[in-house]
Amino acid sequence: MLARLAAIFGFVSVALGAFGAHALEARITSEGAEWWHTATLYALAHAAAALAAGLSGKGGNIARGGGLILIGAVIFSAALYAMALGAPRWLGAVTPIGGLGMLAGWALIAFAARKPG
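-> C-alpha cells emitted (117 positions)
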C-alpha cells in the first residue's frame, strides 16, 4: 500500500512541477514560484524515499517511517502549493508540521535500520 501511495504522490509531484513550470510561469509571483519549486523538490525527494521504504519489504518501523515521510511531504508541499496559488500566508505555519512528519519518518527509519549490539 505504501509503495502504491508513494508512486501516486511521485506522479502527482511530477505533474504539479510541470504545471508550475509551464502553466503558472507568468501567473504567480517570484516568491510563489520559489514556493512551488520547493514544494515540488520536497515532494519528489520524499516520494522516492517513501517508495523505497514501501518496496523494501521490511515492514514494521521502516514502513511506518515511510508513511510518516509521505504524510509529512503531502502536508508540507500542499501548504506551499496553496500559498503559491494565493492562499493566506498564515498557511506557512502548517509547513513545519509537515517538516516534523518528514523528520520523524527519517528518524524512525534510521532507528529501524540500526545494527543490533
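Residues 27 and 85 are 9 Å apart (CA to CA).
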